[in-house]
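Regression test attached.
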Amino acid sequence: MEPSRLEQQIKFILEIDKLKTVLRQTWLVDGSRRENDAEHSWHLALMVMILAEHFPGLDILKTLKMVLVHDLVEIDAGDTYAYDREANKDKDAREHAAAQRLFSLLPGDQQAEIDALWREFEALRTREAICGAVIDRLQPFLLNISADGRIWREHGVTSAHVIWRNQITLDQGPKVIADYILAQIKEAESRHFFAAD
Amino acid sequence: MEPSRLEQQIKFILEIDKLKTVLRQTWLVDGSRRENDAEHSWHLALMVMILAEHFPGLDILKTLKMVLVHDLVEIDAGDTYAYDREANKDKDAREHAAAQRLFSLLPGDQQAEIDALWREFEALRTREAICGAVIDRLQPFLLNISADGRIWREHGVTSAHVIWRNQITLDQGPKVIADYILAQIKEAESRHFFAAD
């Protein structure tokens, strides 16, 4: 017997539980352990709710959906640290294979919807994708500042790297957030949170 | 100097990082550890996206916002296990105090919005609150079934308790989900996932 729509949906819902076991580099604010992709995605969604006013004309529902699904492919492809240039080389191929396997657990129309959301997020062209990207970079930035730059120093990340990572915010993000980031970087430099150039 | 709106928002965003350290009773599907409130909230939001079609007339954006914020009060009040009748007695007072402290970190208009979403979720009267409640009960149910009822047996939870906990789904939820739950309970009974009556 063909599985019903609900059975297909529940299979997907149980499969994506694995996102809770994909660890990121970022430490929690309390320093107790590293963050995982599922709680990171929750944090981004809350940030979209709270910071939406700084992104005029934003489709909030679409942005929320995007940030909720944007890391699902890491269930198979793993988290690729933003500052690891070697691992970023085959990231696209690994993530596209993951999208195919995971999203195809869903009924066809929903597979297409989630796949389109993920591709739009990755392509970084729409207002919603840019908001998602700004917030996806701001969240670990805030956590890293709270942790006195622990992960930056561990990985030899310089302030120039962090500026490069937040370039989309500086170029296309809200001025108030760009200014905040630049001020925080300046302050962090004076407190030696970064590796030396 | 008064903190800017963005500074108030960022203070709140960093404070709610603590939701990642509030542990629930439910085990992850892979059995490696218990789930925390932040990843649970992410899972609910994804479920709202995937299961919305079973809730006619649903305001999806409002439902997503509700499930994203519904557990924030547990940062101060802790997670109260649904089947612990003693701890549930002063749950309301603890959670209202938490809502006051946490949400007041935000600018006034946003404090009011989040507080209203949380109260609507708790009051269980609107279509969106009922959807949130159905999914908030379905998620641990699915994880507990996947874990062969480990937590139910640990806590002496009977199948009658589980039916009581999912009563809102049976009374006001989509028939297809109610039928699914009843069928799964029957199957779980035959596999001895529950404590004896």
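Expected vs. actual: identical. DSSP finds eleven helices and two strands in chain B.
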